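COMPLEX REQUEST
Ligand: 3,4-dihydroxyphenylalanine
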Amino acid sequence: MTVVDESIIQQCMQELESISDQHGLDQVKAKYLGGKSVIREAFKRIAELDPADRAIQSASINTIKREITEIIFAKKALIAEAETLAELAKDSVDTTLQADFCRQGALHPLTKTLDDLKRLLSKMGFDIASGPEVEQFYYNFTALNTPRYHPAVTAQDTLYINDDQLLRSHTSCVQIRMLEKHNPPLRIFSPGRVFRADTPDATHSPCFMQCEGLVVDEASTMRDLVETLKCLLEGFFKQSLELRFRPSYFPFTEPSLECDIWFKNRWLEVLGCGMVHPNVLTSVDIDPQRYRGFAFGLGIDRLTMLRYQIDDIRSLYDGDQSFLQQDDELC
Ligand code: DAH
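STATUS: Structure written out below.
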């Protein structure tokens, strides 16, 4: 006599075939292995058997039980995997969807000029320096050999915050700030924004950019100034250039010069420069008998406009996308 027939394994497998979730699986498991299952019943009936049969029968039930357990366990793994795949399918990213259009940005023309100036001046041994845009009258004028009632003060159309504070009208103030902190020899450049009470038009903007250059040591001459500017401007315009120097006046240089370049068949003024005035050195306690130097101040907007043939300075500041997107043509 057999207490349980092996065909029960087959029967269980068939039932499992149609099961696809954990709930269904639990029901099948209860039916075949649970408290009231055929297997449990079979174990109970062992006691009714001949003692000689008991060992064989119980081994047979155990084998059947183990097989059914394994089948159910395998099915459980299949269901879990199918559930995971279904979850992933719900979350999946549709790679065939059109991606959002992403426009590539471009460097602003002023940034490109600035980057070039930084690269060229660094190569010539200049260190970069900076100063505040809200400046004291002292640094913007007094220390630069321009006392309060000097005519050059009014000539600059400065925007004042109060008697002692203003929006710097040029980057020359950084000369003083650097000379106060560092002993010569010194070789710095300082690009940045400057401000003037100008009504905007094609050639004026109340905010524009300058780059100051300053060398103070025991030996610099005007020849070094000329060679430095030639090297800088030729590097910037990527061509050899003819330079012209005209006498000029700035309170903080003596002699003072304007520098022009011969570009596209005409002379164009590009910067002001000169030998550092002894009074400037004295104002920062540097002995003008021992030290000397040269300085220059160039308009970053002006250089940018010349290089890219921009005829209205306002284009550089009004953020017009159609202007800024001409990147490729500008290069
Ligand atoms: N600060 C002058 C201006 O804004 C430009 C300038 C001229 C700077 C001569 C200098 C210089 O360093 O030597 O017009």
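REMARKS: The chain has a mean pLDDT of 92. The chain has 13 helices and ten strands.
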